[in-house]
Input
Amino acid sequence: MNNKGLLIVFSGPSGVGKGTVLKEYLKKYPDTAFSVSATTRSPREGEVDGQHYYFMSRSDFDRLVENDGFLEHAEFAGNCYGTPRGPVEENLQKGIDVVLEIEVQGALQVKEKCPDALLIFVMPPSFEELRRRLFGRGTEDEATVNRRLSNAAREMGIAKSYDYIVINDSVDDAALQLESIVCAAKHSAKYLNEFIDEVEHDAETCC
Ligand code: ADP
Ligand code: 5GP
Output
């Protein structure tokens, strides 16, 4: 079909449930590569270097930026985050789908550089529910949560630039929405362009 993998960008406000929904999706589609980002943020309890993030100093992060090591990078709530370029490009070339879980500034950079990327934004069922989830997760202090909530309003203002919206009311429904969106994208005429050309070429040479 298509020899290149699909680049999936999964964004949404902090605490909306991106990680939770993706975990469900990846259980069903374990061949999809999750892009492990680099960050200058400190690890949360239970986070493993190289699995959840590559945790690094600001100077190491800046060096990677200078060496063009990131597909995109951005500052969010006082920390830097970036997508290592190499593994994304290698996986896509091998035909493996890659998912980036990133915030909106980075997503817009990806859209600019990779116009074929699929941009999906996750919305909460309500702002009040987002607040409940972010406080309920208990991983940040009150000031940090409030900072992330005020970022959320700005991020939701950019949601209309995305291709699709997932509404994370129940995790199962949201994972199903994600699955359906990816399936639709992989059956778009744009994505299957080369396949259509191949079959068309065979038809022309055979008759
Ligand atoms: P994000 O990755 O977007 O920052 P998380 O996946 O860490 O968000 O989820 C934030 C919190 O909300 C977690 O405590 C998670 O268990 C909870 N959560 C996620 N999705 C739902 C849902 N659909 N309903 C209720 N709680 C949810
Ligand atoms: P957290 O600190 O909660 O893990 O992440 C904060 C925000 O940074 C989330 O919205 C998350 O999606 C985003 N993020 C994680 N990795 C990257 C990345 O590589 N690039 C960008 N631009 N954002 C990222």
User: Anything to note?
Assistant: The mean pLDDT is 95. The two ends are 22 Å apart (CA to CA). Residues 14, 18, 37, 41, 72, 74, 76, 81-83, 101-103, 105-106 surround guanosine-5'-monophosphate (ligand 2) (CB under 6 Å). The first helix runs from residue 18 to 28.
